[in-house]
């Protein structure tokens, strides 16, 4: 018995949607899983951390915690990992790993977790639901967690937006990006920043991308404090606008920048930007609409053929919903 698990990367915030808005992107963390006599991990690509002790790996820790929450132990297995998600770049690499671990336990132990169950567990481990919600549900998500543990999530799959990531060659740890933020905001700043977030959501849901780009650049919650941690970020945002981007913001906590561009114009945008910013990798991405995909592969003992049962982690294909957990 083997399993294949695919988790999309994510971007969060989109400017003023601080710690609440997330979008799943078509770059993936992939696991090939097989039961074994002892736990082992094999990295098949770059963008993956080298962890000498498999038990210390974030995916394994997430899976073990998920199993323990259900009074079970994770069985020993071999994990073969591939990743298109660079580490510490603001593309949800840690959230993807946590979600992968939750799905690993879900598959191996047949926990039959719903998407909402997975989000609740991921939020407990990650601390906030925005990246995890996007990786679990796919599409465009808005999520929040309350002090009493209740989580709300809204997800939509109809948005046909295109983006270009400007990925620098250095890392920025989320903790460092959080430490530059103020502890308090004035009422006027909070009101203005919240209004920009509301307008951003309305623009995306109506697919008014030119307007969405305007609001992406009106954040007051985190970008004014974090842009100074990202060399050339201010210059890149100005150049991106001149190259045709509707708007550019920090992806998650950074240091990657995310530009909203007209569909079909991604390569034209990249060609205008790449020589000006050679220290950034410019990568076109679109919205992933499936979220988690897990496939269980069974070997038919009467033949040499394998067949699979595929389970998609999206709770349904309808456009959107608001759900308390």
UniProtKB/TrEMBL annotation:
One Pfam family this sequence matches: GHMP_kinases_N
Keyword set includes Cytoplasm: yes
Localization, UniProt: Cytoplasm
Transmembrane annotation, as ranges: none
Pathway the protein contributes to: Amino-acid biosynthesis; L-threonine biosynthesis; L-threonine from L-aspartate: step 4/5
Enzyme class label: transferase
Xref: Gene3D superfamilies: 3.30.230.10, GHMP kinase, C-terminal domain (3.30.70.890)
Keywords: Amino-acid biosynthesis, ATP-binding, Cytoplasm, Kinase, Nucleotide-binding, Threonine biosynthesis, Transferase
Domain GHMP kinase C-terminal: start-end pairs: 201-278
GO molecular function terms noted in the UniProt entry: homoserine kinase activity
Catalysed reaction, written as an equation: L-homoserine + ATP = O-phospho-L-homoserine + ADP + H(+)
Domain of life of the native organism: Bacteria
Enzyme Commission number(s) from the entry: 2.7.1.39
Residue span(s) of domain GHMP kinase N-terminal: 63-139
Positions annotated to bind ATP: 86-96
UniProt keyword annotation of Cytoplasm present: yes
Family designation: Belongs to the GHMP kinase family. Homoserine kinase subfamily.
Summary of the function given for this chain in its UniProt record: Catalyzes the ATP-dependent phosphorylation of L-homoserine to L-homoserine phosphate.
Classification via PANTHER family: HOMOSERINE KINASE, HOMOSERINE/4-DIPHOSPHOCYTIDYL-2-C-METHYL-D-ERYTHRITOL KINASE
Name of the featured protein: Homoserine kinase
